[in-house]
Design brief:
Blueprint (H helix, E strand, L loop, with lengths): L2 H6 L2 E4 L5 E8 L5 E2 L7 E5 L2 E5 L5 E7 L4 E6 L2 E6 L7 H5 L3 E5 L3 E9 L5 E2 L7 E5 L2 E5 L5 E9 L2 E6 L4 E7 L2 H6 L2 H27 L4 E7 L6 H12 L3 E7 L7 H14 L9 H11 L3 E4 L20 E5 L11 H8 L1 H5 L2 E3 L4 H9 L9 E2 L4 H7 L14 E7 L13 H14 L3 E7 L3 H4 L1 H10 L6 E3 L5 H7 L2 E4 L4 H7 L4 E4 L9 H6 L4 E3 L4 H14 L4 H12 L4 H14 L18
Parallel strand pairs: 17-18, 17-19, 19-20, 20-21, 21-22, 23-24, 23-26, 24-25, 26-27, 27-28
Antiparallel strand pairs: 1-2, 1-8, 2-3, 4-5, 5-6, 6-7, 7-8, 9-10, 9-16, 10-11, 12-13, 13-14, 14-15, 15-16
Helix pairs in contact: 5-11, 5-20
C-alpha cells in the first residue's frame, strides 16, 4: 500500500471484528493526524509499515499492511487496525486529470481543479483546499477542514452531489477531453479510427506541400473586434512572405450583441485593407475546409466562444497554433492560467507562441501539465509589439480641449468572477470630473462586453451625460487607439493596467478591495500605476491633478516593466519561420520583400 492511499482517503480506527473508535481519521502530508485517538498524533511510512507516534515522538504502534487494504498492529498489547472503505472512485484517475466544477444542466463554475496525490487541491478557489475519498463519496474541504462539497461517484469521469447547508446540486467532471475519451472502452476503437483518419489527412496535406514545394496555408479565425491587432500584424507579414498563403475567416458572433460586434470587427479589418471570408456559419466552415490550411490560429482559446464547427474537436484535420490572447498569461494569480491550461485548444495546439515566464512554468508543472511546456516557442511578444505601434485616435470634436482623459471600465461588476469592475460605483465621479474641468475632454471606453451584460447601466449613464459637451462614450473602438491619444488613463482593470504602460501613459487604477488577487508578476507590474484603494471623487481628482501638474513620476518604471516584451521587434518573423520549419523540417529559406516590412502595421 502506498502513501497516496493514506493521504487521499478517510480511515477508520478500531479493533478487528469489534468496536470502531474513530470513523473519520485523516492523515495529513505534514505527518500529523486529524480525528484520531488522543495519543495518535504523528505518522510515517517506513518499509511499507505505518508507524504511529504520540506527541513526544514515542512509537505507539507499528502496523503492517494487509491484503484487504488495511493496516494492523498492536497498541498497548491489543490488536488494532486502520482501514478504509472500498471505493469506485479511482484516485489515479482523480489525480491524473483536470476537472471542471459546475451546476448540473446549467453551467460550469470553475475550471482546472487538480486533485494532487497528497490530498490537496490546486485551483483558484480559495475555499477549496483538501479532498478525501470515503467509500463512493468525494468530500472537498476548505482551509479550516470545513466541508464544502460532498460528491458521489457516477462514473470515472463524473461525480455529483451537494454544496453547503442549502444542499445545492453540484458536479465535477474531467476537463481534459483526451483523458475522458480514453476511459470509455466502448467508443475508444471508433475514436482511434477517427483520429487516425484525421491524422492521415493532415500528414497527406503536409507531404503534398513538401513534395511540390507549395505554399503553406494559414487560416486566422476571428469573431470579435478590439483584440485582433496582433493577428493583423502577422497577416501583413505572411501576405508578403512568398512561403505562405494566408486568409482570415469570420465566425458569426454568438453573443446577444453579436451582430454589432461582428460589424465592428469587419470595419476594423476594412480599415486595415485586409480581405476576409464572412457569411453564415456553414458558409464560413465550407470555405475554411476548402482552403485546407496547414495551420489554424483561433482568436482566443475558450471553447464556449466558438461554434461546434470551430471548436478544437472539429479542427483535428489541421495543426492548431496559438498566440496568447493577452500580453501576459499570468497577470491574475492562477485563475486565467488554469483556464488556459485546461482548454482543449491549448492541449491540442502544436505551437504556443510567446515567452514562457517562471511563474507559468512552475504552475503548469504543479498542476501536472508539464507537457504544455514543449509547445512554447520563444518568439517574442507579438501583441505587445502590435500595441506599441498603435495609431492614436480621439474624437474629432474634442481637438480643441487642453487634456484628454480616458475612462476604461471592465464588465466584472459585483460578484462577477474577476471582481475588478467599479463603474456602478464611480460613474457619477466621472460625470463630476467632466463638469469640474470643462477645459478637458473625457471619453468613457467600456469593455466590449459591458453593454451586453449591463445594458441598463450603460443607458442610464448615456442619458446622464447628454448635457455635457466634453464627455462622450466611445464603444465602437478598442481601447489602444484611445489610450495612445490620452493624457491620463483612469481604469478599474484588467489588461489596461499593463497594456497602457506599453504606450507610456499615466494610469490611475481604481482598485476594488475584493478583486481576484494578482500573481507575483502582476503585482510587480503595478509598480507602474497609481493605485487608489480610496476611489472617492476627491481621491481621484487629487491624483489626476497631481499627474497633470507634475507629470508622471512612474514613467521610468513603466519603461522598465515593458522592456522585456519589446526586446524582440519582429515576433511575426520568428512565428513565420517556426510555421515553415514545422512543415519543411527545419529549412527556413524564403523570399520576402524586406523593404516592405519596415512597418507591417501601416
Amino acid at each position: 500500500m502506498d502513501k497516496k492511499m493514506l493521504l487521499t482517503h478517510i480511515w477508520i480506527y478500531g479493533r478487528p471484528h469489534g468496536k470502531v473508535y474513530n470513523k473519520n481519521v485523516i492523515f495529513l502530508p505534514d505527518g500529523s493526524i486529524k480525528n484520531a485517538q488522543e495519543h495518535h498524533v504523528k505518522w510515517e511510512i517506513k518499509g511499507g509499515k505505518l508507524i504511529i507516534q504520540n506527541d513526544e515522538g514515542k512509537v505507539i504502534s507499528t502496523m503492517f499492511p494487509t491484503d484487504d487494504g488495511r493496516f494492523e498492529g498492536e497498541v498497548n498489547g491489543l490488536l488494532r487496525f486502520y482501514k478504509r472503505s472500498d471505493s469506485r472512485i479511482n484516485q489515479e484517475i482523480l489525480s491524473k486529470n483536470l476537472w471542471t466544477l459546475g451546476i448540473p444542466r446549467v453551467h460550469s463554475l470553475a475550471y482546472g481543479l487538480y486533485f494532487s496525490a497528497d490530498g490537496t487541491i490546486i485551483n483558484d478557489l480559495s475555499h477549496f483546499a483538501y479532498y478525501r475519498i470515503n467509500s463512493d463519496r468525494l468530500t472537498i474541504y476548505n482551509q479550516k477542514w470545513g466541508i464544502e462539497h460532498q460528491l458521489d461517484y457516477l462514473s470515472d469521469e463524473r461525480l455529483e452531489g451537494v454544496h453547503g447547508k442549502h444542499k445545492r446540486r453540484r458536479f465535477i467532471k474531467i476537463d481534459n477531453p483526451a483523458a475522458a475519451i480514453a476511459s470509455h472502452d466502448k467508443i475508444q476503437a471508433l475514436d482511434t479510427q477517427v483520429a487516425e483518419t484525421l491524422a492521415l489527412l493532415k500528414s497527406s496535406n503536409e507531404e503534398t506541400t513538401r513534395e511540390n514545394h507549395l505554399k503553406i496555408k494559414v487560416a486566422i479565425l476571428l469573431f470579435k473586434y478590439g483584440t485582433a491587432s496582433h493577428f493583423i500584424r502577422l497577416v501583413r507579414l505572411l501576405e508578403q512572405d512568398q512561403r505562405f498563403e494566408v486568409r482570415i475567416f469570420i465566425q458569426p458572433n454568438r453573443a446577444s450583441n453579436g451582430e454589432y460586434l461582428n460589424n465592428e470587427l469587419l470595419e476594423e479589418l476594412d480599415a486595415a485593407n485586409l480581405a476576409y471570408t464572412a457569411g453564415t456559419l456553414s458558409e464560413v466552415e465550407k470555405q475554411l475546409k476548402h482552403f485546407l490550411p496547414h495551420y489554424v490560429f483561433r482568436q482566443d482559446p475558450w471553447e464556449s466562444n466558438w461554434a461546434t464547427e470551430f471548436q478544437t474537436g472539429s479542427l483535428q484535420w489541421t495543426n492548431l497554433a496559438n498566440i496568447y490572447y493577452t500580453v501576459i498569461d499570468h497577470f491574475i494569480a492562477g485563475a486565467l492560467l488554469i483556464n488556459y491550461a485546461v482548454q482543449p485548444y491549448f492541449q491540442e495546439s502544436k505551437y504556443i507562441f510567446g515567452t514562457i515566464f517562471d511563474e507559468t512554468r512552475d504552475y503548469l508543472l504543479s498542476i501536472g501539465q508539464g507537457k504544455l511546456l514543449d509547445k512554447y516557442q520563444d518568439t517574442g511578444n507579438l501583441k505587445a509589439i502590435a500595441i506599441s505601434k498603435t495609431v492614436a485616435f480621439w474624437p474629432e470634436q474634442f481637438v480643441k480641449y487642453k487634456k484628454n482623459i480616458l475612462f476604461v471600465s471592465h464588465f466584472s461588476l459585483g460578484k462577477d468572477f474577476l471582481k475588478f469592475g467599479l463603474f456602478d460605483e464611480v460613474a457619477e465621479h466621472y460625470r463630476a470630473l467632466a463638469k469640474k474641468y470643462p477645459e478637458y475632454s473625457f471619453v468613457w471606453n467600456p469593455h466590449p462586453e459591458f453593454k451586453a451584460r449591463h445594458g441598463q447601466l450603460f443607458s442610464d449613464f448615456e442619458d446622464r451625460i447628454s448635457e455635457l459637451d466634453n464627455l462622450m462614450i466611445v464603444s465602437d473602438r478598442g481601447m489602444h487607439a484611445l489610450i495612445a491619444a490620452a493624457d491620463v488613463v483612469i481604469a478599474d482593470g484588467v489588461s489596461v493596467l499593463y497594456e497602457a504602460q506599453i504606450l507610456q501613459k499615466p494610469i490611475i487604477w481604481l482598485e476594488r478591495a475584493d478583486h481576484k488577487p494578482l500573481s507575483k508578476e502582476g503585482e510587480a507590474l503595478m509598480s507602474g500605476v497609481h493605485r487608489l484603494k480610496d476611489y472617492s471623487f476627491e481621491a481621484i481628482d487629487k491624483q489626476l491633478t497631481t499627474i497633470i501638474e507634475n507629470g508622471d513620476e512612474l514613467a521610468p518604471q513603466q519603461s522598465r516593466n515593458v522592456a522585456p516584451w519589446l526586446s524582440e521587434p519582429h515576433p511575426e518573423e520568428k512565428i513565420a519561420d517556426c510555421l515553415y520549419e514545422g512543415i519543411f523540417d527545419g529549412n527556413t529559406s524564403h523570399q520576402v520583400k524586406n523593404s516592405d516590412l519596415s512597418d507591417v502595421t501601416r
